[in-house]
Amino acid sequence: MEKTVSEAIAYRRxxxxxxxxxxxxxxxxxxxxxxxxxxxxxxLQLWEFYHITNxxxxxxxxxxxxxxxxxxxxQQLVVVVVRKDLWRKHVKANLNYIDxxxxxxxxxxxxxxxxxxxxxxxxxxxxxxxADFLGILGILKYSIFQIIGLFRPIYRQARLSDMRIVAxxxxxxxxxxxxxxxxxxxxxxxxxxxxxxLRIKKILNLPRGAEINMVIGCGIRDDKGIYGSRFRVPxxxxxxxxx
Length: 243
Ligand SMILES: Cc1cc2nc3c(=O)[nH]c(=O)nc-3n(C[C@H](O)[C@H](O)[C@H](O)COP(=O)(O)O)c2cc1C
Fold this sequence. Notes:
- By secondary structure, the chain is an alpha+beta fold.
- 49% of the residues lie in helices and 11% in strands.
- The protein contains ten helices and four strands, in the order H-H-E-H-H-E-H-H-H-H-E-H-E-H.
- The protein has helices spanning 5-11, 25-35, 55-64, 69-72, 87-101, 109-130, 136-148, 160-184, 197-203, 235-238, and strands at residues 47-52, 76-82, 188-192, 211-219.
- The protein is globular.
- Flavin mononucleotide (FMN) binds next to strand 3.
């Protein structure tokens, strides 16, 4: 039986040593299917998930993960990839979805308004934010937004670095969905950013525009797999209630 959300969150730990025991790749795939249900900025879903079960590729990837035992002992690896470069394609997918959703010949006033707003969002606002050329357009937009922002609230994250953060943020939420889903079925994971991302891209044959968000080791925890009890800074230091 699957754990509850709270049980899965409590069970999940970063596992650095896995048992030499295979895990079911179909179950891992189902957890990746849960990953893509994560919220994503503008529903652009600028992510991809590489699920590696091939022993040779696993070996190459664990070297690229700097020989960390969380990678070396993993039965399978999942690489979360950010594809900010696919924004135009995914804008089109969203526009197609909007067309299908509002395809009835007779639409209510509210539906007409919603359709118009959604189309405007994907045809005008998203390209305004995402279109860039070597980061130059981004800086220009950012400066303009700062000036407008003196007079009214405005979205300010328009630089290349801002857009990378936006895309990585969504990918990391998907990664967390994946890890919690794995924990729910008693599988273990370890997110890793300690890696040579250029080598990982080469091993996976990824295009230049792709970025590695994290590599996630997967398996079943060994008795020595969890390094100590969970440490968190006091909750009161990170929690602020504004009444
Ligand atoms: C983005 C990210 C990158 C991480 N990279 C590594 C890593 O390269 N190697 C590693 O052993 N752990 C890595 N961790 C795991 C953290 O060290 C771990 O989450 C933290 O110590 C808290 O422990 P817990 O996950 O068991 O609660 C990473 C975690 C995150 C969120």
